[in-house]
Amino acid sequence: MAADGASSQEAPRTLLASFAGYRPRWIKTDVAAGLAIAAVGLPSAIAYPAIAGLPPQTGLYASIAPLIAYAVFGPSRQLVVGPDAATITVLAAVLAGMPDLAAIDKPGVAALIALVVGGYYFAARLVGLGVLSTFLSRPILVGFFAGISLSILVGQLKRVTGIPIIGDGLVAPVIELVRKAHEVHWPSLLLALGMFAVLHLVRRTRLPVPGQVVVVVLSVVLSALFDFEGRGIAVVGSIPSSLPALALPAGGGAAIDQLLIGAAAIFLVSFAAGIVTARSFGERGGYPVDANREMVGFGAANVAAGLFAAFPITASDSRTAVNASVGGRSQLASVVAALALLAIVLFLQPALAILPIPALGAILISAALSLVDLPALRQLWRISRMEFAFAMIALFAPISLGVLNGVLIAIGATFAYLLHKMMYPRDALLGRVPGHEGFYKLHRRADARQVPGLAIVLIQGDLLFFNADRMQGRIDAIADTLVGGTRWLVLDASAITQVDSTAAAALEEVRAELERRGLKFGIAEMHDEVRTLLDRAGLLDAIGPDMIFDDLDDAYRAFEASGEAPSPRGA
Questions:
Q1: Tens digits of residue pLDDT in 155-169
Q2: Which residues cross the membrane (predicted)?
Q3: Which of 61, 186, 465, 508 has the most C-beta neighbours closer than 10 Å?
Q4: Closest Cα partner for 448 from 437, 463, 459?
């Protein structure tokens, strides 16, 4: 078993990576996992396209070819790709932003967007943009997915009530629902409530069969027995009983700029959702996740989606969870799931045609609620009010300004948070503790004392154009507070890994100002890149080699030997 476990965590850099070191005895669990993935994936595959106004068969197509493509090109053994609520919601916003787009053109444009998203993945991989995942912070993602959840919930109002709601946003549809309450189609609403209760009951009783599967089977049986369509309950309707031919999608009605910008937003959200899923299951399984290599798998899956008349996809957390729980050991599970769904398309089309829309609405509402991570929001509130505020920005932006604008605002909030942190590097005065070696922060150690005549200032952060003025102001402010008799001010640069020309100029102004105050300015513990740039800027020459130190102890000894230290009486 140890050998198997080690093998399962390897990350070969070739095609069919998940099959490297495959063991024949894994076939049984992989087949079982594949059938379970298909069972869980079928309801969402049919339901999710409705969010973007696409026909249900596109969700089935998005659950077949992309799985096989990822099995060939993807690096993970366990990750399963497919339709995702957040990604399809952003796609809905992109399509809604194309006012000249006819309903008949939507599937073709969605498939074309999937191709462009795949191209973005490959381009991002070529330039190593896997680092993008680090900019999508946990608070932003927690808030954004909660906002997406509310958008999905509002979008299901017309499906579960039968009321033709045309309002956008969060408040307008609710007001419209209240105003048209007399138009509620009660059989549809009662069916949706009943199916939602079934989902909750199955979850509470922990049946071995997923709740979504129970709802689909039960609602199809009820629809056949009681003729739901004849009673005014909307049903899925005719679904093609074949796969589309491999072809480049037609993108009629889509402007190139809208296409490229919309695909970029979908790429960012799908990558964020996918890499979060990959990392979470990587942590559970004890194997590393390479974001750049995942881009290849996601790119191939989206290209396959585009060529087979589907829409953009990403990693599916529910399908991946089922795969892990059943014991899938490789991407053979994904291949089996794709073949099972293909068989459903070919042979079970009549059953899918009478599947009631309110039941799908109940599935989507349940899925949307699962995106709201209340424990994570409470934890953010407890840990950092600032990060909680950014989560709220990411939550309300999709609701108030639309999902597409919400994506851009969430990303902008991430960069604003990062910039805020970098703009205000921490600083501290250092001193000695009697009987101890080294230097300590004066505000952290009550027994620490400034070396008489020597001020040591620690700057904890990079010095760049956007914080150089603040750094200069902080050192000037510190100089104003120094006790009389201080002769040297030494900057501890051990926590400064980068400087630019603006910061170098600011440091020169600091040196000149301190000189006017009668203080010598020195720098200790510079990193090589910092030293090189400050040398090119001429600052080190202006400071002089006798005030450049390898470490703080050298600076301390040099100060003691300079004869400028005040005498005990003066001190």
A1: 888 889 988 887 766
A2: 31-51, 57-73, 85-104, 110-132, 139-157, 184-202, 209-226, 232-252, 259-276, 296-314, 326-348, 354-376, 388-419
A3: 61
A4: 437
